[in-house]
Every structure is written in structure tokens, then in C-alpha cells.
Amino acid sequence: MEYLNEYKICKADSEEWARYHAIYRLTNFNEWMSLSFQSDIDRYAKTNFCYWVILDNKRIGGAFIKPNMLKCIFTLPPFHNHSQLIKVLTLYAATISDKSNPIVVPDADISNVDYYKNLGFILEKIDKLMICPTNEFDIELEERYKFMFPRREHAEEMANLYFQTYSNNKLHYIATQSYEFQVSSVKVFFDHIKSMNVTNE
């Protein structure tokens, strides 16, 4: 662990961390298709797993770290050595993780895959993100179904639906998202359409 001793892994103020994450990760690798800069901050502002990586008393990067999980890794200019940062974070994660289970990196940037492989990680799958207009379909719904524009009075039902749905996801880090997280996600949606003056007509 001598290599790790050159660095410090420090707990971050989550709101400040989320701001740096939005600027230095999501502008380059935005898997969330963000609604706004503020929504990117709000997503992580109340979490307890945000960390800085410090070298020579300077921040060089950040990550979201839990036992057996690393995600949201980003560097801070002028430091850009992703290989080095990933190695440091992996060594640290190993010290807090259950040795009988693997360390999972659910959102690794494809350009960094070789760095993870060099540290013993195994690539299990590659997810693709696609954003495009859908085709138009002429659908006749059964009488028990109807289309509704979501309103704030539906927020609790929406959060419950998201929580139940994502709880059955095959990916552990998604399946363990809290009910409070889904409530926050619904709030971000309604705050966004209000700020953008999106009509429900």
C-alpha cells in the first residue's frame, strides 16, 4: 500500500462535490442526459459517499465510493492521469470492501476500460445510450388505461412506481436506490418543467 500512501482519500461535502462532478465528468460523459446543471447537483447533494483524491495537498479528482463499488470517477485539471487515479481509488476501495465479493464499477468510461482490466477487473457488459425521437404509433388503449400529463399531485404515486420498478433491476447499485432518491428524482422533474415553463395543455 506504499503507492496509496502518497495520496489522501477525503470525505467531500456532497453539494460541492456534485458541482465539480457535473462540470468535470458530466460535460464529458453524461450518462444521465441531464435536465439542468442544478439537477445534476441535486442528484448527489444529499449523499454520503462522495470523496476527493488529494496529492501534494491538491485535489486531483473525485469519486463516489461505497464498499465494493466505485463510480462517478473524474479528474480535476491540470491532473489528467486517469490510469493513476483509477489505481489509487481501486486500492482504497479494496481496503473498505468485503473481500469475498468483487468491486463493481457500474459506469466506467469505455475509454478507460484497459486501465480497469490491468487492475484485474473483468468487463461483463457494455451499455449503449441512445437518444432519438420515437416513431408515431396509433394505439387504442383498453378502457382501464388512459394518458395523463404528470402533475405534482401524482408525485407520490410516481416515486412509488419508480421505487418498485428499479428495486427489481438486475444491477445491484440501481436496485438498492432508496425511496428518498426516487422522491428526489420526481421533484427534479417537476422543478425542471416549471423552470422551463413547459405547458401541460
Could you please describe the fold and organization of this structure?
It comes from Clostridium rhizosphaerae. This is GNAT family N-acetyltransferase. InterPro entries: Acyl_CoA_acyltransferase (IPR016181). There is one protein chain. The protein is α+β, with helices and mostly antiparallel strands and 201 residues long. It has two domains: 2-118, Gcn5-related N-acetyltransferase (GNAT) (Aminopeptidase); 152-195, no CATH class. The chain has eight helices and four strands; from the N terminus they run αβααβββααααα. It has helices at residues 2-5, 14-24, 37-44, 82-96, 113-118, 155-166, 172-175, 179-195, and strands at residues 7-11, 50-55, 58-66, 69-75. A four-stranded antiparallel β-sheet has the order 1-2-3-4, sandwiched between helices. A hairpin with a 2-residue loop joins β2 (50-55) and β3. α2 (14-24) crosses α3 (37-44) and α6 crosses α8 (179-195).
Give the topology.
Elements: H1 2-5, E1 7-11, H2 14-24, H3 37-44, E2 50-55, E3 58-66, E4 69-75, H4 82-96, H5 113-118, H6 155-166, H7 172-175, H8 179-195
Antiparallel strand pairs: 1-2, 2-3, 3-4
Helix pairs in contact: 2-3, 6-8
Short description:
The chain is of the alpha+beta class and 201 residues long. The protein folds into two domains: 2-118, Aminopeptidase, CATH 3.40.630.30; 152-195, no CATH class. 38% of the residues lie in helices and 13% in strands.
Structural class: alpha+beta
CATH-level-4 superfamily name of the largest domain: Gcn5-related N-acetyltransferase (GNAT)
Mean pLDDT score, rounded? 86
* Beta-strand fraction estimate: 5-15%
Total of helices: 8
How many domains make up the coordinates?
2
CATH architecture of the largest domain: 3-Layer(aba) Sandwich
Q: What kind of assembly state do the chains in view correspond to?
A: single chain
- Helix/strand order, N-terminal first: HEHHEEEHHHHH
Q: What sort of overall outline do the alpha carbons produce when their principal axes are compared?
A: globular
Organism: Clostridium rhizosphaerae
Protein name: GNAT family N-acetyltransferase
